[in-house]
Amino acid sequence: MCFEAASQLEKSSSTSTSPSPYKGRNFHWVFLGCPGVGKGTYASRLSSLLGVPHIATGDLVREELSSSGLLSSQLKELVNHGKLVPDEFIISLLSKRLQAGKEKGESGYILDGFPRTVTQADTLEGVTNIDLVINLKLREEALLAKCLGRRICSECGANYNVACIDIKGDDDTDDTEEVIKERLRIYNKMTQPVEEFYKKRGKLLEFELPGGIPESWPRLLRALHLENDKQSAIA
Ligand SMILES: Nc1ncnc2c1ncn2[C@@H]1O[C@H](COP(=O)(O)OP(=O)(O)O)[C@@H](O)[C@H]1O
User: Fold this and answer.
1) How far is the CA of 40 from the centre of ligand 1 (A)?
2) Which of 53, 175, 195, 215 has the fewest CB within 10 Å, making it most exposed?
């Protein structure tokens, strides 16, 4: 576990009460964690707090899938079976996104869903200096319950979870138990070595989620030596 980057952050962080005290800082952070752990939620909250973009490679892949053609049908096949898309493909998608961001004047980012293989981590390390990698963890039974309850609203596209709210879900989801198990298997085989990759470089911060967002968010901020802001405190 490495708190070096987080403590550097603590030394230099502002005590201002303005909504974005971290704006202008070049955070290059990565979120790791099993499918379903909640990376997207925490990455998105941190991105608002820190004023840097939240770049989720799953979203980049879904955008690509929404275009038509042979390529997208091949990709769909992989994605629907819980498999990873090829390294060269995802690296090229992310490079384009980072380049577009640079042209718009973005500095820094929170990456979510990348890197998922050691080849991806190696490539990223060759082009940028990642400051901190946050590895979110959840107890296994809580993770499975959460994954199996995960749904996407067919009306508005929002994510929700029938394990957290008391309504009956329909069966219109790709998250069958088999696909979930396949995602977890691939995570263990392909992505766990990425944890090791960053651990060796002293960049990995392990964080076990103690429960839901109200309990976990303030603790995560404390672990990162960040201050809560008014907006995220009431969200
Ligand atoms: N870094 C990556 N490497 C390979 N494939 C990826 C990567 N990021 C996203 N994908 C593909 O996009 C799909 C959706 O991504 P995401 O929403 O992050 O997945 P999940 O539902 O597994 O959390 C993944 O199942 C995978 O097929």
Assistant:
1) 12
2) 215
